[in-house]
Amino acid sequence: MAAMSPGPDFAITVRNAAVSGRRTGVMTALGIAVGVMVWSVCAALGIAALLAASATAFTVVKLVGAAYLLYMGTRAVWGALRGGHAAAAADGGEAGDGAGDDAGDADPASRPWSGFWQGLLTNVLNPKAAVFFVALMPQFLPASPGVADTLLLAVVAAAITGSWFTVVSAVVGALRRLLSRPAVRRRLDAITGTVLVALGLRLVVEH
User: Fold this and answer.
1) What is the distance between the alpha carbons of residues 179 and 49, in angstroms, rounded to a whole number?
2) Which of 32, 34, 114, 133 is deepest in the core (most CB within 10 A)?
3) Distance between CA atoms of 69 and 122, rounded to whole angstroms?
4) What is the pLDDT of residues 93-127, one digit of tens each?
5) Residue 92, class by beta-carbon neighbours within 10 Å (0-12 exposed, 13-18 middle, 19+ buried)?
6) Is the pTM of this model over 0.85?
């Protein structure tokens, strides 16, 4: 249920799968899953608890994460204002060109890995993940957890998250022919960009 709840991870996966295709969406899901594994290990080792308890550390991660969401959101909104195809070509193709999966890309193979890093950074730079895993993880670990216990739980959490966002990518990717139409693409960019900006601003003002 936590993986399925709407948030930055969901928004970035939907946009990447719709704009750049299913493969980029799946790579975004993989990046998010790796981010979940990072947070799982940090929570098990007590690092996430230190972050959640330290106002300074929490604020730093919060501001960096908010800046990243604002950057991604404003790029999407700017692409919508300029028109999906023109914006994608001017942007180096990272956002996708709508109809052709690789048209306008200097290096088509780089786009899926761009999705991976976007998914990873979106998840790792979310300080709410620290609080979430501090509250959740200890309940599923023994009193004196071993390395195997920690790794197993991290893998399970990452597998659940990755599986969910892979399904999301497959569904959105199947609808890409419709979503890649210029008018629909502009609306999609505008909506997902606005959501990311709103999430970034909300992250800034939250304590």
Assistant:
1) 41
2) 32
3) 7
4) 444 434 344 333 434 444 778 889 999 998 888 87
5) middle
6) no
